[in-house]
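Just wondering, does anyone understand these tokens?
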Amino acid sequence: MHSQKNEAASIEGQIVDIKATRQGIVPLMYRMLDSLTVWVEQDKPIKAEQRHNRIERLHEMMGRADISDAEKFRRILEAYQIELDYGTKLGTYEGQITADGKRLEANIFYLGRAALLARSIAGTRYWSWSDDAEAWLPVDPSQSENIDLAFTIAKKQATPALLTLPASLKTVLAAPEAAK
């Protein structure tokens, strides 16, 4: 009888702990989703439409009672992993860019978050994403050979090689040294 009372007390304590954990995990998931939303909005426009749609689906999922908290948490962590992968992977895709005041279909290449390049579908014009200008800027045609090779390597149609590509990084100015 005494062991049954101890068992019941233990189970009640575990139920209280589970409720407390759940009360903490749901707000955590909302904060994680808010952080992920800001990250995507402020990041380079790599697969922008796809990423915004993923965030939108996650927001919709959070209001659904038919999806367990564990599944919601798993999907949010999966979205974080996808975002992290954009920083380390090499890839290409077709998408739209706004360059020269026009919306254009283009082939887009990314090398982590270091290089984001676009090439017209015809392969005659090139642009590089500028973090400073937050815009697609024309690339000198003399770099077309390296950019074309980068696309070929990303599609696994050529072996990896050392390339010189325009970088898509913010310019960081160092603070002037304090006067001595």
